[in-house]
Amino acid sequence: MRRPAKTLTAQSVRNAKEPGKYFDGNGLFLRIDKAGGRYWVQRITVKSKRREIGIGNPELVSLAEAREIALDNRKLVQSGGDPLQAKKEALAVLTFEEAARKVHEIHRPSWRNAKHAAQFISTLETYTFPKMGRIRVADVAAADVLGVLQPIWLEKPETARRVRQRIGLVMKWAIAQGWRLDNPADAIAQALPKQTAPKKHRKSLPYQEVAGFLDVMRGSNAGKTTKLALEMVILAALRSVEVREAVWQEIDMDKAEWAIPARRMKAKKAHRVPLSTRAIEILREAKALGDGSDLVFPGTRYGRPLSDMTLLKLVKGLGFDVDVHGFRTSFKTWSLERTNFANEVSEMALAHTVQNKAEAAYARSDLFEKRRKLMERWAAHLSTHVENVVRIGG
Q: Which domain holds residue 67?
């Protein structure tokens, strides 16, 4: 039995971070694996055979409790017993399904709502219990978890991730009980292929209907500043936040130019916006409505910009089932289908980053003058009245 020169303290247990073994008395030591997992383990000799017994997670089992368990195990061995066998016998009827249902009951009061609690157990009933529900929780191997997840990992990525998380929660509970030393749900990370997150496309309005939308919007009872901000989003093909947080120092009315600093851009790169004739008119109207702050489109509270939900609420309230961001798609589609401008011009207008490194190295110009002509064309398109506008509800 190793006798450390210096035993552990509660503070040293909390401070221990490096992978390795930190020994205490009675064969007890704290094991920290490379992934950062922390476990109490007792090394003890039973009937001439060295055994390692898991005692639990130090987050749930204190040093004093671990020492007490280790001492009890030594006493049991000295009396001819086997702590590991006793633990296995106690666990003999506890299958993974039984353990999962126990965890479900323990956590049920802390979950946000009944639906979340029901989803926890229903996903395990559908995907996990049929394959490994009858296996004792102490005997579940990484291969068992892999067998559950592999068939759905790419086909149903979100569901698979949740199933893995829920299996892991059951295993962490088993570790805390001292029934396991590892979490097989974590051990399979390298065995599963990389998931590709599905790209969510924002709902957009066909470019032929955007002018009609603006007609409907202008005739609505919405706040004047809100309507001006949304029209600017559409007219300049900008992101909502780039318009809502605009300040007057960024805008040069004489040059008809708007310089958005890098800190406010998604790509963290400064972006110049050529202002069309209609954009200048919007800005003059906004100036007249200003609240005295530096914000171009202030919200109802002084010094605070309009919220993103304010613009979205206006769009939805008018009966259009589209996203504010989707108007950028409308602009892009119009540019491709109705103009002869090169793709790079509309990409620059949208402040998209050039993905190809070779192209990016040569793309020194922001094509500002070409973009000015493009945005004037877009403004002219938006001034065209369109009768057939699709509205949902409203």
A: 10-81
List the CATH number of the domain containing 186: 1.10.150.130
Spatial distance between the Cα atoms of 272 and 262, rounded to a whole number of angstroms: 10
Rg (CA), the chain: 32
Q: Are residues 299 and 247 in the same domain?
A: yes
Residue 197 buriedness (CB in 10 A; 0-12 / 13-18 / 19+): exposed
Query: What pLDDT, in 10s, does the model give residues 180-227?
Result: 888 999 888 888 888 876 556 678 899 999 999 999 999 999 999 999
Label residue 191 left, alpha or beta by phi (over 0 means left) and psi (-120 to 50 means alpha): alpha
Residue 194, classed as helix, strand or coil, is coil
- Indicate whether 259 and 371 sit together in one domain: yes
The residues with which 136 forms a beta bridge, in sequence order, are 95
Kindly state whether residues 67 and 182 are assigned to the same domain.
Answer: no
Q: If we measure between CA atoms, which residue out of 323, 325, 322, 348 comes closest to residue 335?
A: 348
- Both 246 and 340 in one domain: the answer is yes
158 and 273 co-located in one domain: no
Handedness of CA 75, 80, 86, 88 (dihedral sign): positive
Question: Phi/psi at 272 (nearest 5 deg)?
Answer: -95, 135
Domain identity same for 238 and 106: no
230 and 353 in one domain? yes
Run of H or E residues at 175: helix 157-176
379 and 278 Cβ atoms separated by less than 8 Å: yes
Distance CA 284, CA 273 (A): 17
For 103, other C-beta atoms within 10 Å of its C-beta total 21
Residue 32 burial (10 A CB sphere; 0-12, 13-18, 19+): middle
Calculate the CA 189 to chain-centre distance.
19
Picking from 195, 135, 128, 114, the residue whose alpha carbon sits closest to that of residue 167 is: 128
User: pLDDT tens digits for 349-394?
Assistant: 998 876 555 444 445 578 899 999 999 999 999 987 544 444 544 4
Q: Are residues 36 and 124 in the same domain?
A: no
